[in-house]
Each structure stands twice: as C-alpha cells, then as structure tokens.
Amino acid sequence: MDDASGAPADLSHAGAVVDKAIEYMISQNISSIAIASALLGGSLGLLARSVDDASIEGILSNALQSVRSGELRRDAPDERPAH
To answer: Is residue 4 included in any domain, yes or no?
Structure first.
C-alpha cells in the first residue's frame, strides 16, 4: 500500500527505520561523517547484490547531479561551526 505521498509502503518503512538508526547513532556521539559513510557503504553493498553495475552507475549519477545542483543543501541544516 502507498502512503499519502505516493511512496511504496516498504520504502516509507525502510526510511523510518533508517531515520531511527541515525537518531540512535547521533545519540551515541558517532560523527555525522562516520554515520553517512557507513550508510553509504552499506547501501552500495546492498545495491551491488541487488542490481547490475549500470543501474548503480545511474543511481550514483543521479546523486551526483543532486549534489552539483545544490538540491541536497536546500533542506540540509547548517552543521558548520559558528565563528
């Protein structure tokens, strides 16, 4: 079943689980870069077992386009230290 945003239920559930895992790791004082690196590595490993290399390249290409366009920064909180 889809939720109100149109996302498949399993995607919404997986996202909620990941959000909780991130909250937990932050509460354990694990650095943001360590958390993100671990999640990215795990995601790439799962993709490598699930889809072909061309599909992974497409996913990474889309992610890179999002970085270059600034799309990821628009909603991201500013975590830089104040001067």
So the answer is: no
> Is 17 exposed, middle or buried, given 0-12, 13-18 or 19+ CB atoms closer than 10 A?
exposed
Residue 28: domain span: 9-74
DSSP string, the chain: -B-TTS-BHHHHHHHHHHHHHHHHHHHTT--HHHHHHHHHHHHHHHHHHHS-HHHHHHHHHHHHHHHHHTHHHHSS---SPP-
What domain count does the chain have?
1
The reply to whether 81 falls in a domain is no
- The pTM (predicted TM-score) of the whole model is 0.70
Q: What is the pLDDT of residue 72?
A: 83
Looking at residues 55-63, what average pLDDT do you find?
Answer: 95
19 assigned to some structural domain: yes
Instruction: Note the pLDDT of residue 73.
Output: 85
